[in-house]
Amino acid sequence: MAPITLVKVALMVVIITTSTVDGFNVRSVRTKEKETKMVFYMQDWESGKNVTAVPVAGKNGTNSSVLNFATIVAVDDAITEGLDRRSKQIGRAQGIYVNSALDASDLHLLFSIVFTNEKYNGSTIEIQGADRFFLKQREVSVVSGTGYFRFAQGFAVLETVYLDLANLNAVIKFNVTIHHY
Ligand SMILES: *[C@@H]1O[C@H](CO)[C@@H](O)[C@H](O)[C@H]1NC(C)=O
Ligand SMILES: *[C@@H]1O[C@H](CO)[C@@H](O)[C@H](O)[C@H]1NC(C)=O
Ligand SMILES: *[C@@H]1O[C@H](CO)[C@@H](O)[C@H](O)[C@H]1NC(C)=O
Ligand SMILES: *[C@@H]1O[C@H](CO)[C@@H](O)[C@H](O)[C@H]1NC(C)=O
Ligand SMILES: *[C@@H]1O[C@H](CO)[C@@H](O)[C@H](O)[C@H]1NC(C)=O
């Protein structure tokens, strides 16, 4: 299993000049933008042992299927270094996703990756976007971050690398590129 891959590159120097606008002090910022790339796996298990994804609302209440439009699923999925569920955990995906296409083909993702590995412990990135899960590859946004990833912006390429449709269990590979300071 591949270890979490990280590449940091100084990309550019951002210079913002100071000015005072209507009493607000606008601070001068001169800082280097960094790029971090990483690959990790989201363990999305709706059945079996140690369920971490639970439908909480939908047309049929809590019995709604994620494969039907309007179902909302709360998640606290393990983020692992490798595809294997027992590989090293480096964080959790905490939040929700919503089946938000009338033809049921799209999960709108809306959750934080809360890192627990030594380097990024406590830092987060915010994932949001259209997960058209029937596509082999799709892209969602990294809209912000905290801690090590303050001011983060980027994207994640998603790929379903394990799928048990009958039991609604899946492992999703995230290939993330983030710019931050
Ligand atoms: C479920 O969690 C328990 C306790 O953390 C662990 O011992 C067990 O191996 C886990 N099972 C699976 C299938 O992940
Ligand atoms: C949900 O499913 C369970 C078991 O399949 C059933 O007993 C229960 O009545 C269902 N609840 C609703 C609100 O449909
Ligand atoms: C609601 O439950 C019915 C009967 O079990 C099922 O046929 C239907 O697909 C379900 N609808 C949704 C939106 O989950
Ligand atoms: C992460 O931080 C928590 C509390 O801030 C601490 O308990 C834990 O040991 C830390 N984990 C690592 C891997 O450093
Ligand atoms: C992640 O994506 C980059 C392109 O952005 C690609 O070069 C790299 O091979 C991908 N890594 C994995 C493990 O798929």
Radius of gyration from CA coordinates: 18 Å
| Helical/strand content category | mainly beta
The main sheet comes to: 8 strands, antiparallel, barrel
Number of strands: 12
Describe, in plain words, how this protein is organized in 3D.
- The protein has no helices and twelve strands.
- It is mainly beta.
- The strands form two sheets. The protein has an eight-stranded antiparallel beta barrel with strand order 4-6-7-8-9-10-11-12.
- The two termini are 29 Å apart.
- The model has no long low-confidence stretch (mean pLDDT 90).
- The chain binds 2-acetamido-2-deoxy-beta-D-glucopyranose (5 copies).
Could you write a compact summary of the structure shown?
The chain is an all-beta fold and 181 residues long.
Task: Please give a handful of descriptors for the protein shown.
181 residues, two-stranded antiparallel ribbon, binds 2-acetamido-2-deoxy-beta-D-glucopyranose
